[in-house]
């Protein structure tokens, strides 16, 4: 699979969203207030995605900034509450609030045995807890990304990352998260967040990320000034 082919799905998927770029390392705990002052921006999406080939999704283009003013603040508050619950209830997950989206990061070593795409029994329980929260905050869509380190062949890493993303998406669906909300995709070794020259860096690169953002219905509700939850 060529890199261009790998980009087709996320590019087509993300182009329907209004997005804004951020500098890597910009992480906030509460974004409701920030969302009130952010307007929608779609420029640079393609360049952002391509630029993130050597970094995480947040380095190139951020999910969010779909609404400004009061609507943006409402979505920010909705995401703040959801992120806080995930952070509190889901063990082994690192939670980041970025813009009007949420980034949930799982170390693949926690979710899977080495070289496997079968989720461990302990991790199944944590994915179930994540699913319960997602079902309470059901006005969101999700991208599930699989990532690997650079050990092994490109093709093997690409296949493993895709199977791991699919495993997480399938388990979420088994726990009643609508499949229409889920978009799994594997990036293999193409998006490292650290150096593959050290074991610590490779450990960081072996991960599954769940990216959560407002769906169209939530945007409409926020634009009208009231959310139903």
TrEMBL record:
Which domain of life does the UniProt lineage start with?
Bacteria
Q: Does the keyword Membrane apply?
A: yes
Q: Signal peptide location in the record?
A: 1-24
Keywords recorded for this protein, A-Z: Cell outer membrane, Membrane, Signal
| Compartments where located | Cell outer membrane
- Its primary localisation, in coarse terms, equals membrane
Q: Where is the OmpA-like domain?
A: 98-216
InterPro entries from the entry?
Bact_OuterMem_StrucFunc, Gly-zipper, OMP_bac, OmpA-like, OMPA-like_CS, OmpA-like_sf
Question: Record keywords: Kinase included?
Answer: no
GO CC list: cell outer membrane
Q: Which PANTHER family match?
A: LIPOPROTEIN YIAD-RELATED, STATOR ELEMENT OF FLAGELLAR MOTOR COMPLEX
Q: What is the protein name stated in its UniProt record? A: OmpA/MotB domain protein
The organism is: Pelodictyon phaeoclathratiforme (strain DSM 5477 / BU-1)
Q: What is the lineage of its organism?
A: Bacteria, Pseudomonadati, Chlorobiota, Chlorobiia, Chlorobiales
